[in-house]
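Bumping my old thread because nobody answered last time. Still need a sequence for this structure:
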């Protein structure tokens, strides 16, 4: 599962991929699905999405990409280390969604049913975070 989140409780988009699919290619596809933004926003990701083509796609779509380079990279880049400390927000989202046993264990055989339950889990997470008077 690949996801673009605005916080640990607000999802902009997600997609499913097979276990042997390249993460970077799926991440680019998800970014292109979201489309170009009106203003630049910070984009946190892990090193699985760290390649030049993903960086270029994120830059064209006005995402401010904050990812540390891999240690074996020939030409590593500078990144904002303070801003990088907020990368845990994406991990917190995945922790929340995997709190739903059905998502974590993936009981559903069909992607359609699994995706439907992910939507239900996201709605529950979002509604739980809203303060209702």
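Sorry it took so long. Here it is:
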């Amino acid at each position: 599962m690949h996801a673009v989140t605005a916080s640990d409780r607000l999802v902009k988009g997600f997609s499913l991929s097979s276990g042997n699919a390249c993460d970077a290619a799926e991440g680019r596809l998800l970014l292109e699905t979201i489309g170009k933004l009106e203003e630049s926003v910070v984009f946190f990701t892990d090193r699985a999405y760290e390649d030049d083509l993903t960086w270029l796609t994120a830059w064209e779509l006005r995402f401010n990409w904050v990812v540390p380079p891999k240690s074996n990279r020939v030409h590593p880049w500078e990144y904002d280390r303070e801003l990088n400390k907020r990368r845990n927000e994406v991990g917190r989202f995945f922790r929340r969604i995997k709190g739903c046993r059905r998502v974590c264990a993936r009981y559903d055989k069909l992607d359609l049913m699994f995706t439907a339950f992910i939507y239900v889990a996201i709605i529950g997470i979002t509604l739980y975070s809203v303060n209702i008077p």
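Strands lie at 2-5, 11-15, 41-44, 63-66. Let me know if any region looks off to you.
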